[in-house]
Design a protein that fits this description.
Layout: E1 2-8, E2 11-18, E3 21-30, E4 33-42, E5 51-55, E6 58-65, E7 68-75, E8 78-82, E9 92-94, E10 97-99, E11 131-133, E12 136-139, E13 144-147, E14 150-153, H1 166-169, E15 171-172, E16 179-180
Antiparallel strand pairs: 1-2, 1-10, 2-3, 3-4, 5-6, 5-9, 6-7, 7-8, 11-12, 12-13, 13-14, 15-16
This protein binds zinc ion.
Zinc ion binds at residues 173, 175-176, 178, 187, 189-190, 192.
C-alpha cells in the first residue's frame, strides 16, 4: 500500500515501504509531458505511517521505521535524504491518502548487490559410521555386510581357509554352473567330470 499526496502544480508524491526500502516517487504533469522520478531510501520497515510536512524549503517526508526516523527533502523534482532532524516547528502537516503504487515506481532498478560472501570451505567428510537397518548391517574398512545370518566381507578380513568357511570352498560346475564341492569328481547335477 502506498501513500500519496498532491503537492500542487500538478505534482504528486507517492511513498511506500518495500522490504527495508522506502520508495518515493515524484510524479509531475507538465504541459505535454509526464515526469516521474523514483528513489529508494534504506530506511528499514515502517513502524508508523509516513508524515508529509511543508516548510519554507519545500516538503519534508518523515518516515518512522524500526531504525528510527528518516527525513526526505522534496524540492521541485528532486529528493534527498536529510541527515539531521529538520526543524519542523512551523511546518504544516499535509494529510496523505492511501493509493496504489504508481506502475513506474515498481520498476525502480535494484541497488547494486553487495558482493557475495566467499563460500566457506566444506567440512571434511566424517568417516562413514557402521550402518544398521533391521537385520542388515554394513560397515566400512574392512567392508563388511551382514544380513541376518548371511555375512559378506572383503578387504583386509580375508576369510580363513578352513572347514568353518564353506563358501570359500564353493566351486561351480563348468558345464552347467551348479555348485559342486571341491572334492567331487563328477557334477551332481549334470554328471560332468570335474578334473
Ligand atoms: Zn554340471
Amino acid at each position: 500500500m502506498a501513500y500519496m499526496c498532491n503537492l500542487g502544480n500538478g505534482q504528486q508524491v507517492f511513498v511506500y515501504n518495500q522490504d527495508n526500502q522506502t520508495i518515493v516517487t515524484l510524479s509531475g504533469t507538465l504541459p505535454g509531458q509526464q515526469q516521474q522520478s523514483s528513489s529508494g531510501f534504506s530506511t528499514g520497515k515502517w513502524t508508523a505511517l509516513p508524515i508529509l510536512y511543508r516548510n519554507a524549503g519545500g516538503f519534508i517526508l518523515r518516515i518512522e521505521s524500526d531504525r528510527g526516523p528518516h527525513y526526505v527533502q522534496l524540492q521541485g523534482s528532486s529528493m534527498s535524504a536529510v541527515g539531521t532532524t529538520p526543524n519542523l516547528e512551523n511546518a504544516e502537516v499535509i494529510p496523505m491518502q492511501t493509493a496504489e503504487p504508481p506502475p513506474a515506481a515498481t520498476m525502480e532498478p535494484m541497488k547494486p548487490m553487495t558482493p557475495m560472501e566467499p563460500m566457506t570451505p566444506m567440512e571434511p567428510m566424517t568417516p562413514m559410521k557402521p550402518m544398521k537397518m533391521g537385520d542388515m548391517e554394513m560397515r566400512m574398512n574392512p567392508m563388511e555386510m551382514r544380513m541376518g545370518n548371511m555375512g559378506m566381507s572383503m578387504g583386509e578380513s580375508t576369510p580363513s581357509k578352513g572347514e568353518s568357511n564353506p563358501s570359500y570352498r564353493q566351486n561351480f560346475c563348468p558345464q552347467c554352473g551348479a555348485p559342486v564341492k571341491e572334492n567331487d569328481r563328477f557334477c551332481a547335477n549334470c554328471g560332468h567330470r570335474l578334473s
